[in-house]
Amino acid sequence: FGPEIRYVFVMAAARLLVSTRSSPAWNSSDIVRVVPVAISTTITKSFRERTLSTIDVTDDTFQDTVTQDGIVFVDAWADWCGPCKQFAPTYEKASEKHTDVTFAKLDTEANQQVARGLDIRAIPTLMAFRDGILIYQNAGALPPAALDDLIQQVKDLDMDDVRRQIAEQNASEQ
Question: In angstroms, what CA-CA distances link 77 with 3, 13, 31, 36, 99?
């Protein structure tokens, strides 16, 4: 392991040892039992944080994910879809760059109820939600610059104005 990884191991082991010191039965022989647990926990957490810039949403978790405060992008895809596979690295890089945004992936084959509810007819389909409001939905893969531009446009939206427009539209339909 490199020095950075070793440092993480040592720091995690030290934190774990300090937290277990208050135990009346703690003694130096416990280091042998504690360090592997600390190392395993640190590796798992660190790996997850680096590799899960995007989250998977399902029929069960979609609604809770997209109705949260803030910005949520959803990439609707399928394993057999060539353009989806081509777009995946672009989407992943954007998720690493824009850490203040939630990036989700929806497997349309495994989650057909949500796909039908959203009327997804072509994939990949990219959706953007802000504060629980669907503000963008379009089929097709975007190049990196266009995706970054879209993300910035969503960030720059005046949500009070969006809510006002929605209220006006709803009032005119009644």
Answer: 39, 41, 47, 39, 22
Catalytic site residue from 84, 114, 123, 127? 84
What gap in Å lies between CA 168 and CA 154, rounded to an integer? 21
Catalytic residue among 13, 16, 81, 94: 81
84 catalytic? Reply is yes
Closest by CA to 113, choosing from 56, 60, 67, 65, is 60
Residue with tokens 């969503």: 154
Query: Could you tell me the CA-to-CA distances from 166 to 26, 87, 129, 169 in Å, in that order?
Result: 61, 31, 14, 5
pLDDT per position as a tens digit, 6-50: 333 333 333 444 343 444 443 444 334 333 433 333 433 333 344
pTM: 0.70
Collapse the DSSP code of 101 into the 3-class scheme (helix H, G, I; strand E, B; otherwise coil) and give the result.
coil
Dihedral angle, C-alpha 55, 106, 113, 64, nearest 10 °: 30
What is the per-residue pLDDT across 65-88, written as a single tens digit (0 to 9) for each? 999 999 999 999 999 999 999 999
